[in-house]
Please model this.
Amino acid sequence: MPLPVAATPGCQCRHGGGRAWTAQLRLLFETTVHRKPRKLALVRWYDDLPDTQLRPLEKLEGMSVLRWAITTRDGKLCNHYDVIDAARIVGPVLLQRNPLRSDGRHFFHNHFVQRGVLEG
Model:
């Protein structure tokens, strides 16, 4: 069964014992670092939208509102991509574009939808 048009697969990642971060998995690859094979992932990060920026309809129980993360490089704003150890990926999540915002940068993460949805 194909994913709905508005759905975007994402993944949860952990750094150390800290909180989970949400990212879009762009590429999995394997390389050698100091003669040891390493499995790495290229990800594009999402940020949680602060509560002060949420609209009334976005304050749904069990939902997070995310947006593409932005960072600064050489004094310019750019999308936040990163290469991480693939072992930091905890599992998949299903994100849905936020229909309340027309910029295409905002998503809902429903915490009640788990792995089975993506494994179809």
